[in-house]
Amino acid sequence: GAPAVPGARSMYVESTLEYGSRVGFWRIMRLFQERRIKASVDAGHEVMSHGYRFIDYQHVPEDEEREYIRLAVQTLQGLTGERPLGWLTGRPSPNTRRLLVEEGGSLYDQDSLNDELPFWVTVLGKPHLCLPYSFETNDNAFSGRQGFATGEQFYTYLREAFDFFYK
Question: N or C: which end of the chain has fewer CB within 10 A?
């Protein structure tokens, strides 16, 4: 919803993305604690990376993108004791998938919108799994005017989408 700020930081957008680490994460952790749900690497959940910086990588120099991938892996490994197995850049470059395979630890990425089902590609002679991402069935629907008014509406939409694809 915010306009681009070419060549500069957008403090408005940064504050929106910061919400998760300041508020959202802790709210979810309280809910898990109340319900005695174990949500940690030790409980068997996997770590996935959303990248080191949430920027458009289209024109980022390859060496700089490679360094951001390294920093993201290093940071998550330091925080959780586990390296990320999956990746979602959000705005990948033509090099992103190759750099992830080159780095060696990502089993899959979600930087594709071109299918409804997972599919395999070959990158650097190795099989790499693509798990298509959907703008349709994620919480982005709440961030714009086209969003749902209630959680129940969103749940119904998700359930109906699942039922359709399951058939």
Answer: C
Report which secondary-structure segment, H or E, holds 166.
helix 151-166
CA torsion 4-88-140-157 (nearest 10°) is: 150
pLDDT digits (tens, 9 = 90+) for 21-74: 788 888 888 888 898 887 666 666 678 899 998 889 999 999 999 999 999 999
- DSSP, collapsed to helix, strand or coil, labels residue 139 as helix
Q: What is the pLDDT of residues 137-151, one digit of tens each?
A: 776 666 666 677 788
CB–CB of 161/136 below 8 Å? yes
Helices (H), 20-150: 25-34, 62-80, 96-103
Query: Pairing between strand 126-130 and 119-123?
Result: antiparallel
Number of Cβ atoms within 10 Å of the Cβ of 110: 20
Burial class of 106 by CB neighbour count within 10 A (0 to 12, 13 to 18, 19+): buried
Nearest Cα neighbor of 53 from 96, 94, 24, 109 is 96
